Amino acid sequence: MLKFEPRGAESPFWRYAAPVLALLLTGVTAGLIFAVMGRPPGRTVYTLLVAPLLQQDGLEALVVKAAPLILMGVGLSLAYRANVWNIGTDGQFTLGAICGGGVGLAFPDAPAWALYPLMLLAGAAGGMASGGVVAWLRVRFNANEILTSLMFAYITQYLLVWLVTGPWRDPMGFGFPQTALFSDAAQAPRLIAETNVHLGIALAPLAALALWVMLEKTLLGFQFRVLGQAARAARFAGFRETRLIWVAMLISGGLAGLAGLLEVTGTLGQLTTTLSPGYGFTAIIVAFLGRLSPLGVVPAGLLLALTYLGGDAAQINLGLPNAITGIFQGILLFYLLGCDILLNNRLRWRRRGPVPT
Amino acid sequence: MSFFLVAFLVSTIAAATPLLLAAVGELVVEKVGVLNLGVEGMMLSGAIAGFATAHETGSVGLGVLAAIAAGMAMALLFGVISLSLQANQTATGLALTIFGRGFSALVGARYVGIPAPTLPKLHLGALSDLPVVGPVLFAQDPLVYLALVLLGLVAWGLRSTHLGLILRAVGDQHNAAHALGYPVLGIRYAAVVFGGALAGLAGGYMSLAYTPMWAQDMTAGRGWVAVALVTFAAWRPFWLLVGAWCFGALMYLSLYVQALGLPVPSALLSALPYIGTVVVLVLISRDARRIRLHRPAMLGQPFQTRG
């Protein structure tokens, strides 16, 4: 029968081949699902993953969608390395958007050179505050960060709903649950005029590079890697786990907050009741697809951004609910995690029989 | 006053039932050393499977069975990846939640805003007509009683039976259990699927009895609250009941205060149960020694046979 046999050492080939295999399997599985649903599998997968890129402005839409995913995924790749399971980046994203967006709404007449940097700071600070509370509860009270970070995501969402339906609602907005539009000075600066390519598209790869340098080239990054691979060794070496938890939550929270601020000032232009179409969970997949390496997160973010565009395209062109994005993402994460067994194991045929002595 | 009391108690018990069902399942899963964070995904799958089946066949009973089956299928998927392929359990559980949300939204797109048969409430004659006690204790729907019976059975089974001893051994020291000849992986699979069945049933309760309809993401984080309840209870079954009732009460009160029209914004009141979860988790986790004492020692650790 087929059996997994330990390799003894991690296979360098499968380190990079496993995600590719996972992607192929996801494509095949998705095709099968579409076939079961009575859709032509080839054409549906094509509509999902290829057609969005061939459209006019397809690449522009892709990088705009990928920017927040990369920013959030980069922070998570760092946190997960240290086994700090921040799964509430949606909440940090939203609080960043609220804080930064609030600054923009408070000073509609301020000049851009003063206002926008302040909004960026406020957005990052909001995300860091949200992540920081989770870190504090974990370090001080031993409260599981998986649950607290997710609960804060729900709480922040209700805070947002309250703000945009209550005190921050646009009095000229015909009662719609949304704030006034940001002033021109409070919009994310464009890298290319007349497009949606905003500042975040440059910041995302920069953040990835910065965190990669930190993780691979500094003592702090070394401590992260040791803590994740051998927590006991890290303790014997005298690394302070609490400090690493703080750093992981502040960085992943701050980047998520920044992503939130950039998203509302770069594409949405105002605060509404739903800011994140599930970016928080998608960023988790981005981090894993990128093999928890900040640089790997960049292509992973682009790919997952494509599934969002594909979901929209499938809804418009094929009449499929855009929930297939979620299914696609879930299957991808399953395969990614499952294929990792090939890193340290090989598949072998072995006859059933007595164990040789 | 007695009207309020009856409404309060009846609603609290109803709101607590899905939490209790899912938490009892998760408790058994964690007792054998497996952390399945996919409860929310399994609940959503159960909710839509139950609702769709009940709507298509007109039978609530079949709906409940379909909800259970959907939860079990999802749990099996989790088992294959985290137990057989030894992937990280935290990440696999998250994948299960992401997949369950997408799957339920896709299947459920056709079922938004349409009715389905509802689980009937029991009526036990004169008992149900007693003031206060009647509606609270003797006129709930069958799943409310089933949840309590299951809780009792699991508590008794874990504490006082041979099977319970084996389950706890697998969760506390899987190498020793393996050396004694117990099939560690098989037992873990069985527990995970049992947990999936209860999570699916909890989802079915949501869409067939609690709020009889389908809406995307209708469980609204209850699966996560159920996971939190297991930690809150420090893996002791009867504390699950205390926790579930507290959350049921909190959920009812947040709705009740909204209905009163107090000058407190409803969105903030809706956040109360989540704030409550955080507060309770913090209070309970503060005592690290107690958590260490009760936590299954192998929780989250993969098991691999040598050779």
Structural notes for this entry:
The complex is a heterodimer of chains A (357) and B (307). Chain A has 15 helices and 2 strands. Helix content of chain A is 70%, strand content 3%. A two-stranded antiparallel sheet of chain A has the order 1-2. Chain B has a single domain, classed as Orthogonal Bundle (ABC transporter involved in vitamin B12 uptake, BtuC). In chain B, helix 1 packs across helix 11 and helix 7 packs across helix 8. The mean pLDDT of chain B is 87. The interface between A and B is large, with 43 and 49 residues.
List keywords for this structure.
heterodimer, A: 357 residues, mainly alpha, ABC transporter involved in vitamin B12 uptake, BtuC, two-stranded antiparallel ribbon, 2 strands, 70% helix, globular, B: 307 residues, 15 helices
Short description:
By secondary structure, chain A is mainly alpha-helical.
